[in-house]
Amino acid sequence: MTRRLWDDDERLLEDLAEAVRGTQPLADTIAAQAEGVLSWRTIDEDLLQASLTFDSSLEAVAATRADPGQTRLLVFTSAPLSMELEVNQDEVVGQILPPGPGEIHVETPDGTEYSVSADESGFFELPSLPADAIRLRCDTATGRVVTDWVRL
Amino acid sequence: MEDEISPVTALVAAAAEGDQQAWSELVSRYAPLLVSVIRRFRLTPSETEDVAQTVWLRLVGHLDRLQEPRAMPGWIVTTARREALRYLSSGRRLEPNDPLDPGFQAIAADLEEPDEGLFRAERHEVLLAGLAELPRRQRDLLLLLLEDPRPSYVEITERTGIPAGSIGPTRSRALERLRRSPRVRAYVESAERSELSGGDQHDAATLG
Known about the structure:
The complex is a heterodimer of chains A (about 150) and B (about 210).
Chain A: H1 9-22, H2 26-34, E1 48-55, H3 56-63, E2 72-77, E3 82-88, E4 91-97, E5 102-107, E6 113-118, E7 123-126, E8 135-140, E9 144-147
Parallel strand pairs in A: 1-9
Antiparallel strand pairs in A: 1-2, 2-3, 3-4, 4-7, 5-6, 5-8, 8-9
Chain B: H1 8-16, H2 20-39, H3 45-62, H4 71-89, H5 102-110, H6 114-133, H7 136-145, H8 153-160, H9 164-180, H10 182-207
Helix pairs in contact in B: 1-2, 2-3, 2-4, 2-6, 3-4, 6-9, 6-10, 7-9
């Protein structure tokens, strides 16, 4: 009867040591950097959470290498409001669905934010490709929604 | 009694309510697993930090939907993999895919046989997922025992409050619990199955 993997305490502890040491010191660094992130907790009960439900960059990886010139499409979904983003090189355009005007607040992890307006068709454009992670908070007549965090 | 309870459920619930200390413990528990998952994509340390930040931010948005602690490691692993893939496929990362880049060579020089590297990464992932769920005292003790050089029993008692005579037994219970954690158990069983099917083939060949 062969022994099972990790039946032996010493062997288990040895592998665990290797696993833990392999993540140092980076694990400590990212844990420290996560400290302030809890302040992004959404307390507002009326704010809808729109989850990232489609990202063409993942499809591209599955198929072939992403073509650098290709437009990346991201879809954030919630009921009743969704948001789509298209990234093409340094240009970021988006649309609120169902189409309608609204105010889009672009939030970054360091707390800075700016706003852009969506027109009657729900179209909006960001002034530049954000360097950091962002999430979009959007106020419309239909409701208020915030997207998942995403790095474009 | 403490031995029987994983604090992760309570930590997730408390963090969802805004408890900073619970959040800090949660991230320190799962940071090693997160690093281990992202590492497989060969990102640089600063890229790893970027991906990790996105995962933490996303986690904060999903805390209230993660009350079941068993969902935690799966959620972290899946989200980290997706974010790392996104990072790789985004247009801004051109250099590291270039084999002539010095950074690439440094990483490549580090690689072993691809298969062995993959198995090792997988073993590490399940062990780190199991470690993240251990009761506080057991996890603290294991982490201390892994330190190099290993602290003395006197020091361990000072730092964990575990009496010298209980260190050995606590260590065995911690390791046993690690063995029984869902991901570790699933990994051991699947490794055994693939070994068995390999054995069957061997027997068949011998009999034939």
